[in-house]
Amino acid sequence: MSKVSSVEKNNLRRKLTAQYAAKRKKLKEIVSDLKRPAEERVAARTKLSELPRNSSATRIRNRCEITGRARGYYRKLKICRHELRSLSSQGRIPGMVKSSW
């Protein structure tokens, strides 16, 4: 199990990302539109930099749903490799069996 504070910090980042997503998207469109005047684009870039850093989607860390482990994460199943192995050995993941030879 990872630290509870790390998991909670990541949950806060997810919440902030959802909260500021529309505003961030609108400002990014203004910044990338080359037809707009340079002053307007600079102002949009300034407003974008004033938003909370944790509201950016790139700061979210993928973590295991069961243990909170950040490494060895399988996106499709949303679990880490340790839990994948233990659950597949128990037969709890449909279509997956532990191989032995």
Q: In short, what is this structure?
A:
With 101 residues, the protein is mainly alpha-helical. 51% of the residues lie in helices and 4% in strands.
Task: Explain how this protein is built.
The chain has 101 residues and is mostly helical. The protein contains three helices and two strands; from the N terminus they run ααββα. The protein folds into two domains: 1-61, Orthogonal Bundle (Helix Hairpins), CATH 1.10.287; 63-101, Irregular (30s Ribosomal Protein S14, Chain N), CATH 4.10.830.10. The chain has a two-stranded antiparallel ribbon with strand order 1-2. β1 and β2 form a beta hairpin. The model has no long low-confidence stretch (mean pLDDT 94).
Main attributes of the structure:
2 domains; Helix Hairpins; 30s Ribosomal Protein S14, Chain N; mainly alpha; 3 helices; elongated; 101 residues; two-stranded antiparallel ribbon; 51% helix
Instruction: Count the E strands.
Output: 2
The amount of beta strand, in percent, is: under 5%
Helix content: 40-55%
CATH class of the largest domain: Mainly Alpha
How many helices in DSSP terms?
Answer: 3
Q: Uncertain spans, ≥5 residues at pLDDT below 50? A: none
Which architecture of the largest domain does the CATH hierarchy give at level 2? Orthogonal Bundle
Shape: elongated
Q: What string gives the helices and strands in order?
A: HHEEH
Strand-pairing-aware structural class: mainly alpha
